[in-house]
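call fold(seq) -> tokens
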Amino acid sequence: MSFLHITPYCTACISMRRAAELEALPIDNSEKLAIYRQLLDAVNLYITPDTEVVELATVSFRRLKALVKQSTPYEQLIEQNLSKAVARAKSIEDLIAGKPIDERLSLALRAASLATGYRAFNTPDKILEEPPSTVDLTALGTSLQVGRDDTRRVVRLLHDLQRNGGTIYYLFGSVFELPYDAILLRILVNDLGLSVAGITRSDRYEDYVVTEDLESIGIADTLSEVIDLGSDDVTVTIDSNEHLYEQLNNASLVVVKGELQATYFHNNPVEAPMLFLFAVPCPVIARAFNLPPRSFNIVLQEKPRQG
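ret:
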């Protein structure tokens, strides 16, 4: 795996996401154009060769919120579409209920990875048109491509943690992934007896999980601790959350959801084992992780990447 530098493709992808959000707002087209120009100016001023993708994503989203002076369209999209993700995740949980523990773990990991392929807007990072269903879970490995699947190693590690104890830190991504995360979390906590701390935000970056979402999905009480970043940051970063980043070094396992968080921890690995559950939406991430484009992945990194 190679270091992921920000590329023109990354900048274009993030700009397209901001354009889609702006287009959905109920404001005049001429005002939208003026706002978008200001947004592009801000993005161009911020970019340097050392800029992390997550930093550009966070800064551009904050700038959009400041320019439009109103809420982004995500709350309405979540209200309209989250129930479908909840229902489909429930069908998957019902499907795997009663199976042997290792099989349930395997299928829950696959569902959590699959869920990262859905996005509310038709942007380049969208692979699935709708939140995944039992049909999609069955299709994973045939019509839906698996890139890397470290499930067996993950299951062995989880059983080691079951015997030896420790804490898992779970970095939540999109709220549309949360019902699928809940399947995995219930197995980890209720069946394996593991301690899991969830990391959320106080304000939304795009459709990413905020603390109150855990209550609405019914997963808050499953977690041993909820750690709120106190901002709309995409993820835990060394610059913004140094103390928490240091905590992750001592974790038994860090679960990283989605390609944006994966890019940051790929570039800035902690000392603890990391489990990446993510889809590969673009050639940039495909090259960095040496994975096929448009694939779904369960990647366990037990030692920090060298070089």
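Residues 83-301 form a domain with the Rossmann fold fold (CATH 3.40.50.10880).
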